[in-house]
Amino acid sequence: MALTPDDVRKVGSLARLALSDNEIARLTPQLNDLLAQFARLQELNTDDVPPTSHAVPVKALLREDVTAPSLPREEVLRLSPHVDEYIGGFIVPQVIGE
Amino acid sequence: MNEILTLTAAAIAAKVKAREISAREVTEAFLARIEAVDNDIQAFVTVTPEASLKAADAVDAKIAAGEDAGSLAGAPVALKDNLCTRGIETTCSSKILRGFVPPYNATVVEKLASAGAIALGKVNLDEFAMGSSTENSGLFPTRNPWDLTKVPGGSSGGSAAAVASLEASVALGSDTGGSIRQPAAFCGLVGLKPTYGRVSRYGLVAFASSLDQIGPLTRTAEDAALVLNVIAGQDSRDSTSVPRPVPDYTKALTGDIRGLKIGVPIEYFAEGISTEVRAFVTTAIGILRGLGAEIIEVSLPYTDYALAAYYIVAPAEASSNLARYDGVRFGARVTSAKDHIELFENTRDEGFGAEVKQRILTGTYALSAGYYDAYYAKAQKVRTLIRRDFDAAFEKVDAIISPTTPTPAFGLGEKSDDPLAMKLSDICTIPANMAGIPALSLCCGFLDGLPVGMQLQGPAFSEETLLNIAHTYQLETDWHTRRPTL
């Protein structure tokens, strides 16, 4: 069940990665090597084993709902050169067609 | 060489508080050291002399005023560049975070500053902490101070190299699959990955959120205890940090391990671990036995499956965490895009390095419809089996000893074309992350001039036991006092 270069391109698109043909050629065998390693896990019978998503048992922690200041908008907008200071937002290419 | 550089953080803090030396003198000595040797080592991504001296002067002023300057007063610390520092660029050694100057500090950064530690700057890592040699840094590779042709390990390679070359008294790293312990082993240091939840991850750039943990890299177990005292504890800004009192870890350093049960897992001394490394650890086990520890053989049968399960879980979480780097709100942006999808795709293509892309793809695939059960769900179940292995072992023993890495540091470029061989260097360290338990590496000898590391693992929240075993071993041996020639 090896991945083809087209499969890798499709996964790249799901991950929002534009991959060049060279990268696809390099990544395809690498990913197939990894998948071959992963196949070993199928040797294990885990039918009655619960999954672990959190290694250390903790209860969901709730804190008091206290109002506190967020980061000032100007400071956050300073993180990108692509901002519209008048609107107070980040500029991106047009999303909705004309 | 300036004598100050060889002092531990504990000794520096004691001397600074006793006014034998000033925090400014200490800071100037370390800044001069960075100036002198970092061209060769390349540990630092950013050095902040002005801010460091200002912090040092503040410590000196507190002491002059008779105030408590903190348990790390004047101790210079290097911060892994995936810890957010307010007003100081934080790159994760990735091109995609070029120019990112965080508007806030990580909790650990604030805690260190409150304890009087002096941050010297930010140190190199494998991009987004993904790698085992620091060669995956998107900026430049770091070299091993013991041999400049070798890697310092990774991903906290800059942290390890900085402390080993006396450019900092201690450092912080992060550990997702061995990223503190493996470089500590390669550079002859103590490296501690605390229990998951012991230290707040707020402000640590997320890689794999169920595995990541921040910890110290130091020359002595005492310094590791001192740093852990400062950084441990619950934080309302990290809901996975555990509401559990923080003991004074230095009080646990009794130098007495008589009657302690230490397990030797056969699986960690198997094929794949070099015979020389096995011999060094076996010798160290003999020393611990001589100090009164009871040595018991144990078995962790699922060890062999941990690597495969980890390389599903970690990339899956990473693919999700790294979705935020889209070029819109911070970091680098490729501006030539005709629409927003192209903006994301081109920014991420140009901003991420080869290893990061490979892991994002692996994770995306493992989480995609139709494959989730075969990969991610399966790996989570195997994670349970690994945890149960440890639970069973810790019914019989207080701690487990093993090599930290299969070999000492390998050569720069030696494994960079073979991702699978590179990943095998984490085979002994990954299980602790999967089980969430604490683990510590310390030096147990030198092979051809390169440090060899041994690893201590214990049940959740047994940091005191691990630190005391390491401390007791260091009282008996002098590996930790050796210095590389630079």
Short description:
The complex is a heterodimer of chains A (98) and B (486). Chain A is mainly α and 98 residues long.
Description of the structure:
The complex is a heterodimer of chains A (98) and B (486). Chain A has a two-stranded antiparallel sheet with strand order 1-2. The relative contact order of chain A is 0.07. Helix content of chain A is 34%, strand content 4%. Chain A is built from 3 helices and 2 strands. The longest helix of chain A is centred in the N-terminal third of the chain and has 18 residues, at 21-38. Chain B is of the alpha/beta class and 486 residues long. Chain B has a domain at 3-261 and 409-414 and 439-481: Amidase signature (AS) enzymes (Alpha-Beta Complex), CATH 3.90.1300. Helices cover 38% and strands 13% of the residues of chain B. Chain B is built from 15 helices and 11 strands. Chain B is globular and about 65 Å long. The mean pLDDT of chain B is 96. At the A-B interface, helix 1 and helix 2 of A face helix 9, helix 10, helix 11 and helix 12 of B.
Strand and helix map with partners:
The complex is a heterodimer of chains A (98) and B (486).
Chain A: H1 5-14, H2 21-38, H3 73-77, E1 83-84, E2 89-90
Antiparallel strand pairs in A: 1-2
Chain B: H1 9-17, H2 23-41, E1 44-47, H3 49-64, E2 76-80, H4 107-114, E3 118-123, H5 157-164, E4 170-175, H6 181-187, E5 190-193, E6 213-218, H7 221-231, E7 261-265, H8 275-290, E8 294-298, H9 303-321, H10 340-351, H11 354-367, H12 373-393, E9 399-403, H13 419-424, H14 430-435, E10 439-447, E11 450-457, H15 463-476
Parallel strand pairs in B: 2-3, 2-4, 7-8, 7-9
Antiparallel strand pairs in B: 1-3, 4-6, 5-6, 5-10, 9-11, 10-11
Helix pairs in contact in B: 2-3, 5-6, 7-15, 9-11, 9-12
Descriptive terms for the model:
heterodimer; A: 98 residues; mainly alpha; two-stranded antiparallel sheet; 34% helix; B: 486 residues; alpha/beta; Amidase signature (AS) enzymes; 15 helices; 11 strands; 13% strand
